[in-house]
Amino acid sequence: MARIVMKFGGTSVAGTERIRRVANIVRAQAAQGNQVAVVVSAMAGETDRLVNFCREANPLYDPAEYDVVVSSGEQVTSGLLALTLQAMGCKARSWLGWQLPVRTFANHANARVEDIEGERLIASMEAGEIAVIPGFQGVSETQRITTMGRGGSDTSAVAMAAAIGADRCDIYTDVDGVYTTDPRIVARARKIKYIAYEEMLELASVGAKVLQTRSVSMAMKHNVRLQVLSSFVEDGSPSADSLPGTMIVSESEMAQLLEEGTMERQSVTGIAHDKNEARVVLTRVPDKPGAVADIFTPLGEAGINVDMIIQNVGREKGETDVTFTVPQAELARAQALLDDRRDALGYNRVITDSKVAKISVVGMGMKSHTGVAATMFKALADRGINVQAISTSEIKVSVLIDEDETELAVRVLHTAYGLDAEDEAA
């Protein structure tokens, strides 16, 4: 018998027919003797609808009341799933965040989990009850409903799994696992059977949209085994060890799998792309100690995420150009902030470009394989793709290129690193 948290995303619960499909998957797991807790998202599109209601009611809405409104989407699906399971003869009930409780810090619309009391949930599951929990929400110390921001249901599912000591947390989505790259771009992308937390965290942070970065980070911190699989299966849920998805595990477990010969580690595990980047260049910045800090400190204080920083040798003595990237959604705010500080910062002008893309190759094998970056640069150069900026970590190399060359770059690199499967992805 295993204790499992199952999380279903918005597309999986989009309507009563799909909720019945989800109920069948959940019932199959419970029928195997497993203790099951289910975390659900709102139906696809529902959160956007509720957010629009808030904006129409009051463009300067109170974040606490915003949370009351948008949290209702998950509450509806949790109640509907519990009702559907009951109709199938299962013992099931819904648990709202404040009933457990899921305690969060009082940062409305982007709350962080502080603690989850799992005792009542464990007792319910041990009594044979299927627990259905709305994701994305909790309660603050002032007893106000809070929400965890976009993708927060993944995070709440992992937090729930950690709180109740689950054997694993299964994340059901509209894709059947984590692939070496986007199968819509590379038909011969391969589904990855096992991937380390660190690799998944890097892939999620650079554009892979299968999992939210906060959920992977929490899983790594609490050593929660994650599995990504699809809810769109015809034969119900397979047995626990034969689920056709991707298992996300610790580096020590990955090392054991490698030692046992279960798998072979390549230098690169996956390739991700992100078209939501914008490039910013500050020209003729004074080349003196503290100048760069003066640029990036206010950006950081404003909560603007900066990546891929390059400081060039200036055309004139005592001057330099500083290049960096920010999310496209933050470009206008970043530019306004820099414009306000132009005299203090002493730069000549700001040049921006939102028609760029970040391409990243990720793999724990980079620690033991040399020439990964060289392979990347040569493969791109051979196809005439210009690299505008570079950033690296211990297990990642990212480059900035023209947006129009994104798909070509992904295909070229996928082949260059030997990731193409023999057959096309289904």
UniProtKB/TrEMBL annotation:
Which positions bind ATP? Answer: 7-10, 173-174, 179, 184, 209-210
Tell me which EC number(s) this protein carries: 2.7.2.4
Q: Which CDD domains match?
A: AAK_AKii-LysC-BS (cd04261), ACT_AK-LysC-DapG-like_2 (cd04923), ACT_AKii-LysC-BS-like_1 (cd04913)
**Residues annotated for substrate binding in this entry:** 47, 74
**From the Swiss-Prot or TrEMBL record, what is one GO molecular function term?**
ATP binding
Q: Tell me the enzyme class.
A: transferase
Write out the GO biological process terms. Answer: homoserine biosynthetic process; lysine biosynthetic process via diaminopimelate; threonine biosynthetic process
Q: Which pathway or pathways does this protein act in?
A: Amino-acid biosynthesis; L-threonine biosynthesis; L-threonine from L-aspartate: step 1/5; Amino-acid biosynthesis; L-methionine biosynthesis via de novo pathway; L-homoserine from L-aspartate: step 1/3; Amino-acid biosynthesis; L-lysine biosynthesis via DAP pathway; (S)-tetrahydrodipicolinate from L-aspartate: step 1/4
Q: Which NCBIfam families match?
A: asp_kinases, PRK06635.1-2, PRK06635.1-4
Q: Which PANTHER family match?
A: ASPARTATE KINASE, ASPARTOKINASE
Q: What is this protein called?
A: Aspartokinase
